[in-house]
Design a protein that fits this description.
globular, about 270 residues, single chain, alpha/beta, disordered N terminus, two-stranded antiparallel ribbon
Length: about 270
């Protein structure tokens, strides 16, 4: 671990818990933390340096809004998370219409890049779990080249059985990473982080979905202007139509339905 302290320092925990209560609100049935990326990085540095983790980062987008509306366990996982950040760009104007002012979009791969830069500056250790082995190897090599001062505590592909899971968790715990990135799909990454957070021995745990594929240059990310107009999902559908078309069709429809109900209730409450 980056800090020389051998035992966790929990003196920072009450401060961070109080901060969470002051910044957290509810958006379409999902908790969300109203944070800027600068404030978030400052808090996460404090978590790692004080060894007051584990802290689990989750994200909301249209897909997650749909999952939470249909799955009480996912709703519980999101409520329990230490950080819930607004990933989906279309959620920002929806939030404004519902009276919630989200400071900025903080997306998974963008945050991962910022945390890798922070790890490089402060010599934090990193563990990567997920993706196919060849993708993972390429991703690790690129990270080593771009961020030579961070330490790779370990890596493991995401193809393991339920029977193998305790061994995977034990290996991560033995590596003692400051940062653990989960390159898994949803809801697997959310459930894995929630179930094993206390056993993993990581300071900060973040699900990053398909970010390893993007970092390995196997999947192209949408241009910034496409992201800003909220059409990144369409860019992904064009790249992977068989896998993404039905997912976005159904989840976007569910999210719009949830938003419609919430907006109607807000209007009705004003009368």
């Amino acid at each position: 671990m980056a800090s020389p302290i051998t035992e966790p320092n929990h003196s920072a925990a009450p401060i961070l818990d109080a901060q969470r209560q002051s910044r957290r609100t509810v958006l379409m049935g999902c908790p969300v933390d109203l944070l800027t990326s600068a404030a978030l990085l400052q808090e996460l540095s404090q978590v790692i340096d004080s060894q007051s983790g584990p802290k689990v980062i989750q994200f909301i987008n249209a897909n997650k809004i749909a999952q939470v509306s249909n799955d009480s366990d996912m709703a519980r996982i999101m409520k329990k998370a230490d950080y819930v950040l607004t990933d989906g760009q279309p959620l920002l104007p929806m939030a404004r219409l519902l009276g919630v002012k989200v400071p900025e979009r903080i997306d998974g791969i963008g945050l991962m890049g910022k945390l890798l830069k922070l790890a490089d500056e402060r010599r934090y250790s990193v563990y990567l779990l997920g993706a196919k082995q060849e993708v993972l190897d390429t991703c690790v090599a690129k990270i080593r080249k771009q961020f030579p001062n961070l330490r790779i505590a370990g890596s493991r592909n995401g193809y393991f059985s339920e029977k193998e899971t305790p061994g995977v968790v034990a290996n991560i715990r033995a590596a003692k990473p400051d940062l653990l990135f989960l390159g898994m799909g949803s809801p697997m990454k959310e459930r894995f982080a929630d179930r094993y957070a206390a056993e993993l021995g990581a300071g900060v745990i973040q699900g990053v979905g398909g970010s390893f594929d993007v970092m390995a240059d196997l999947v192209k990310r949408a241009p910034v202007w496409v992201q800003r107009i909220g059409m990144e999902w369409l860019f992904r559908v064009i790249q992977e139509p068989r896998r993404m078309f039905w997912r976005y069709t159904t989840t976007n429809a569910t999210c719009l339905s949830v938003f419609g109900r919430a907006f109607f209730l807000r209007l009705a409450g004003r009368r």
